[in-house]
Amino acid sequence: MTDYFTVTRTISAPRELVFEALTKPEHFGVWFGTAAVEVPRDTLSMDVRPGGAFRAVMHLPDGNSIHWTGTYVEVEPPAHVAMTLTDQPGDDAGLPCHLRSGVGGGGHAAHGAPGSFRLLG
Predict the structure, then answer these.
(1) pLDDT tens per residue, the chain (121 residues)?
(2) To 10 degrees, what angle do helices 25-32 and 15-23 make?
(3) Do strands 118-120 and 80-85 pair parallel, antiparallel, or not at all (unpaired)?
(4) What DSSP line would sit under the chain, residue for residue?
C-alpha cells in the first residue's frame, strides 16, 4: 500500500493567473525552482494538452541537476490540469498530479501523493 499525504498552499491570485503560472514556461520556472534552485527557461518544454509532454531541469546549488518529465492527461483552463511527474525519466512512469483552482479566484496547492501536488479549489 502506498502512503499518501497532503500539503496545502493558499494562493492569493486570480485563478487565470494561477493557471498561467502552472502552464506557461515563462512563469513555471520561477515558482518550480527556489532562490537557490534554477529552472532555466531553455530547459522547459510544456506541451499543455492531453497527451502532451512536460520536461524541465532543475540546477541545484551543489552542481547537480534533477531532470523532470511528465505527460499532461487533462487540461481544462483555468480550473484543472492533471499530469504525471517524475524525476526518474525512463525508470518511472511518474506519479499523478492534479492542479485545481477555486471558483472566485485563487486556490490551494497540495501534495496529494509522494512527488505529486494538487491545486485545490
Answers:
(1) 344 445 566 677 788 888 888 899 988 888 888 889 999 999 999 999 999 999 999 999 999 999 999 899 889 888 888 888 888 877 766 666 766 665 544 444 443 443 334 443 3
(2) 90
(3) unpaired
(4) ------EEEEE-S-HHHHHHHHH-HHHHHHHHS-SS-B--GGG-EE--STT-EEEEEEE-TTS-EEEEEEEEEEEETTTEEEEEEBSSTTT---EEEEEE--TTS-EEEEE-STT--EEE-
Q: Which three cell numbers stand for residue 39?
A: 529552472
Task: Let me know: does 68 contact 43? Beta carbons within 8 Å.
Answer: no
The owner of cell 485563487 is 106
Specify whether the CB–CB gap between 41 and 29 falls below 8 A.
Answer: yes
| CA-atom Rg of the chain in angstroms | 14
> How far is 51 from 48, CA to CA, in rounded Å?
8
**pTM of the predicted protein model:** 0.73
